[in-house]
Amino acid sequence: MNRSYLIYSVIISMMLVPIASYADHNQYLFDQANQLYQQENYTQAIEKYLEIYNNGYESWQLYYNLGNSYYKTRQFGRAILNYERALKLNPKNEDIQLNLDLANLTVVDKIIVPPQFITARLFSDLKKFWGMQTLTLVAVGFYLILTLIIIVKIISRNRTAQRILNIVLVPAVIVFLVIAAILVIRIHENNASRHAIVLADKIDVLSSPGEQSTELFSLHEGLKFKVEEIRDDWAKIRLADGKVGWVRKNLFEII
């Protein structure tokens, strides 16, 4: 066996061992947390789930179970926060949506959202049809298919094959461009548009960043809003109905 190949194999194996151990440890914690949840030890289950989260791991299952644990301990703001995070990763999951809807019934503030035009609503539903991971895989898959079609078209000398490829190529390009555009929009929204959940029992929304500012209105635990700007210890927020104000940034958490 080539000596260099052997050395590279050993190095790669040494690198993979801690990664595998790290994954096994998170799975062990996850199994422990699930068992504690089944035993109705919800507070201890939360500690285990948070340990996994603090390790830098995330999945919709982790957020969903964490949301359920917070709901059982009547920490509804944190339950909604984690259901929202789970739904972000798995937007078509009906169980997550159902539990999120149940948790939202506990929110005191009822924001009346202006109706969307049907085209805007349809486009919004289309954007959320897949989670980010699935959408990325679909975009890469269509890119590879499109590349393969173009390569075969270039090297093929069969006229029948050329006609079929010409027919397939245009729809494939259109579908790829649509999926790629949706992916770019989703990435931009994830980076530029931040939403958060109120975690305090009640927060006062002010006209400007400062304790001496005029109080505009109050919000309560569990409400979702958009964060538009962070300035020192303050954040400018916007509600779904368009109301704007400033709150302290330690009273909410970004989804």
Helix tally? 8
Contiguous uncertain segments of 5+ residues: none
CATH superfamily (homologous) name of the largest domain? Tetratricopeptide repeat domain
Distance between the termini: 52 Å
Count the strands? 7
Order of helices and strands: HHHHHHHHEEEEEEE
| Morphology call | globular
- Broad CATH class of the largest domain: Mainly Alpha
Percent of residues in helices? 55-70%
Q: Mean pLDDT score, rounded?
A: 86
Class from secondary-structure proportions: alpha+beta
Domain module tally: 3
CATH architecture of the largest domain: Alpha Horseshoe
Radius of gyration: 24 Å
Give the helices and strands, then pairings:
Layout: H1 3-38, H2 42-54, H3 60-72, H4 76-89, H5 94-104, H6 118-127, H7 132-155, H8 159-192, E1 194-198, E2 202-206, E3 215-220, E4 224-231, E5 234-238, E6 244-248, E7 252-254
Antiparallel strand pairs: 1-4, 1-7, 2-3, 4-5, 5-6
Features:
single chain; 255 residues; alpha+beta; Serine Threonine Protein Phosphatase 5, Tetratricopeptide repeat; SH3 type barrels; 3 domains; 5-stranded antiparallel beta sheet; two-stranded antiparallel ribbon; 7 strands
